[in-house]
Amino acid sequence: MPKTSEAPRVVIVGGGFAGLAVCRALARRPVAITLVDRQNHHLFQPLLYQVAMAGLSPADIAIPIRAVLRRQHNARVLMAEAVGVDFERRQLRLHDGEALGYDYLVVAAGASTNFFGKERSWGVHSLGMKSLEDALEMRRRVLLAFEAAEREPDADARRRLLTFVVIGGGPTGVEVAGALGELSHFVLADDFRAIHASDARIVLIEAGPRLLAGGFDAELAERARDQLGELGVEVRLNTRVEDISEGRVHLKDETLEASTVLWTAGVQGRRLATLLGAPLDRTGRIVVEPDCSVPGHPEVFAIGDIAAFVPSGQDQPLPGLAPVAMQQGRYVARAIVDRIAKRSVGPFRYVDKGIMATVGRSRAVAQTGKLKLSGFAAWVMWLVVHIWFLITFRNRLLVVFGWFYNYVLYARGARLITGEGSWRSLSELADEAAGRAGAPDEVVHR
Q1: Same domain assignment for residues 128 and 254
Q2: How confident is the model at residue 427 (pLDDT cuts 50, 70, 90)?
Q3: Fewer CB within 10 Å, N or C, the chain?
Q4: Which residue of the set 175, 182, 206, 432 is catalytic?
Q5: Once rounded to an integer, what is the mean pLDDT over residues 244-267?
Q6: Nearest C-alpha neighbor of 85 from the set 270, 276, 279
Q7: Across all residues in the chain, what is the average pLDDT?
Q8: Quick one: 225 and 323 in the same domain?
Q9: What are 16-64's pLDDT values in tens digits?
Q10: Closest CA to 309 of 333, 296, 327
Q11: For residue 431, pLDDT beyond 60
Q12: What pLDDT score does 119 carry?
């Protein structure tokens, strides 16, 4: 490999599927790579809901980025936050004032939860899920609700504590609602004495006329709805949320009282996207050229969830899926190599290998080409695909063992309530449900 000073400098922002795909595809190329991420770990986001619903531990779906790239000698990792780009000087600015020079820049910073402009109200009273911290807080709040209900003598307050509302009927919402139904009806069924965990009410709200509207066949979406019903999930279609307040979800003609509101209704590009001065779509994602470059800057690429890539002949951007991010990452690596060699670069073409969503134990839907599966067969297919995409063999082994254990015994060993002040939060959650005077300023919200 040439000396760093002689090698083209490739700076990658984000250690998710897209960023790592670029980095690893350039492993044997004469380039000097710097990967920047706010976290020190790569997160397997498709299984984040399993952490939130106590099915897996964080270490099962996360791995240090440095461990992934330990043997890649042309790459270094910096734990830092990118806060801007100086296109003229070709520098990436970091939060501490440092500037990284680049010849090629890849922005793969991912997405954040989209509350559609109501972060200060809806975002305070509901829980999103885009990071390990989000998932752990969701797990904590869900388990605290059951613990508070166990000690609550008032029947109405217990009912409110055991009511959970999931907003958003896409794959994440379906998976969260299904896992919550399984958690309450099977996993926690024998853990309590004063309450029946299976009495928990789980309501999934979708503003559109069907679930899984982003690419799934209508028949599979209906099967997913049936499978959710088997787990005791109440599905509300064509139902728009008007407002969210403390312990309440306000619909057009009804108000749902719930201890926990889980938000899975949308994502948006991270703040870095707004700092590039590039055109953005309505969700704040960077609208990119056919070669995934930022308009006006062929040396800068945006890929993964932060980018809005519209294939030729279509009017909708590609979905925020791991396969899309990984294919874009490998493509951009080839594009960088071609540009260094002064070769022309063709447009990115996505190869759709199918989509799938799990609903619970032995319940899932999967679609690839003309093949449509549901139930146990789809669940096995989902299981194999997700284990295959996990980064290391250790992670695969842990997840396989954990899932097999859960499948046979309906057991989830990650039912841990962590965090400072959990006892206080437990009391305050019960006070809110019962309408007693508590200390709401101390309650942890996201």
Answers
A1: yes
A2: confident
A3: N
A4: 175
A5: 93
A6: 276
A7: 90
A8: no
A9: 999 999 999 999 999 999 999 999 999 999 999 999 998 888 988 999 9
A10: 327
A11: yes
A12: 87
User: CB burial class (10 A; 0-12, 13-18, 19+) of residue 194?
Assistant: exposed
> For the segment 341-386, what is each residue's pLDDT rounded down to a tens digit?
999 999 999 999 899 999 988 999 999 988 999 999 999 999 888 8
Question: Do 220 and 191 fall into the same domain?
Answer: yes
Helix (H, G, I), strand (E, B) or coil at 385: helix
182 is catalytic: no
Q: ∠117-121-122 over CA atoms, to 5°? A: 75
Question: What is the per-residue pLDDT for 441?
Answer: 43
Q: Are residues 126 and 98 in the same domain?
A: no
List helix spans (H) across 294-375. Answer: 322-340
Cα 317–chain centre separation: 18
Instruction: Please report the beta strands in 5-158, taking only residues with DSSP state E, as ranges in sequence order.
Output: 9-13, 32-37, 41-43, 62-64, 75-79, 82-86, 91-94, 99-101, 104-107, 111-113
Amino acid letter, 17: F
Q: Are residues 191 and 310 in the same domain?
A: no
Domain shared by 219 and 108, yes or no: no
Residue 205, SS3 per DSSP: strand
Among 96, 77, 68, smallest CA distance to 32 is for: 77
What are residue 41's phi and psi, to 5 degrees? -130, 150
Burial (CB count <10 Å: 0-12, 13-18, 19+), residue 97:
exposed
* Number of folded domains that form the chain: 2
CA distance 286 to 277: 9
Do 225 and 272 fall within a single domain? no
